[in-house]
Amino acid sequence: MKRILTAILIVVATAGLLACAALWHTHRYLHSPLDVPPAGTDFTIPVGAAFATVSDELARQGILQRPEVFRLYARFSGRATEIHAGEYHIEAGVTPAQLLEKFVAGDVLLYSLTIIEGWNVRELLQAMAKHPEISMTMSDEDWPAVLEKLGSEYAHPEGLFLPETYRFPSGITDVDLLRQAYRLMQLTLAEEWQQRAQDLPLASPYEALILASIVEKETGRADERARIAGVFVRRLQTSMRLQTDPTVIYGVGKAFDGNLTRRHLRTDTEYNTYTRHGLPPTPIALPGRAAIHAALQPTDGNEVFFVATGLGDGSHKFSVTKDEHDAAVREYLARQRAARAGK
Fold first, then answer.
1. Would you place residue 4 in the very low, low, confident or very high pLDDT band (cuts 50, 70, 90)?
2. In this structure, are residues 59 and 67 in contact, taking their beta carbons and an 8 Å threshold?
3. In whole angstroms, what is the distance from residue 298 CA to residue 292 CA?
4. Helix, strand or coil for residue 172?
5. Which DSSP helix (H) or strand (E) runs through 42?
6. pLDDT tens per residue across span 54-81
7. Taking a C-beta distance cutoff of 8 angstroms, is the pair 294, 212 a contact?
8. 33 closest CA partner among 1, 73, 65
9. Kindly report the CA angle at 332 between 331 and 336, in degrees rounded to 5?
10. How far is 235 from 200, CA to CA, in rounded Å?
């Protein structure tokens, strides 16, 4: 009997030692660097993939040496069902335990698209279509349905998406990216509207967006935005026509070939601010945050005219009277003629 008890104790002790050894080796493996190249490697978890499939694929690619240990650790820790699909960059030096945390956190690779101030929505769609990580689901004809999905009260998409740099995972749809830009525009416009100057001739945030889009197209100079906005505000207040070329060009649409003519200026469209008073019916571009701020915080003054200087720096000459403006126009034309003669 004594021998039997001794044997049992030896077996139990051995089993305990083996268990401790197994636990030690498992802990050591889980916290030792994986076999990842110095520059790291990319790995994709497909949508709906089971954890066993993920661990087997990691092993197949040579990243995991003991996928069964990885699976057991994930299951016993309760994390196996918490991983997120997506594209991951696995850095050199990462351990199996850290890799699991990365999958659970959804620390996926992010790509970016910068929406440029002054783009129109056609250019925005083209930029998204060219991006290899954006999944295109819509065309220009789909705007009414997309705007309804975004919750917009407006039927025309122009101006509703804030120019910014957006970061997103691979495979994002065009509509999901537009949703981000739309929401950010709504937040930005609401903030700026709350801080607007008093007595502006703007009845709503949307009218502010229209004016901001015109300011955006008229100048790229930060030091001129509020001043140009001031000119347009004073014109609206005194029932002067805005007479701004970018609105005319927008009204011509895809047919515009880059050459604005007198015929264009005289042809009446709902966007021609030479033939019609007030703001056009919609924005004419995607205005940035600075242009929106300028439209709602315009510079005070008496100037109601401006024209390009022709100095090559994008600057404008501002005038109070028509005579001053006509002189500035003549100066601009003289510089243009001199530039052409010097070529």
1. low
2. yes
3. 10
4. strand
5. strand 41-45
6. 999 999 999 999 999 999 999 989 999 9
7. yes
8. 65
9. 115
10. 11
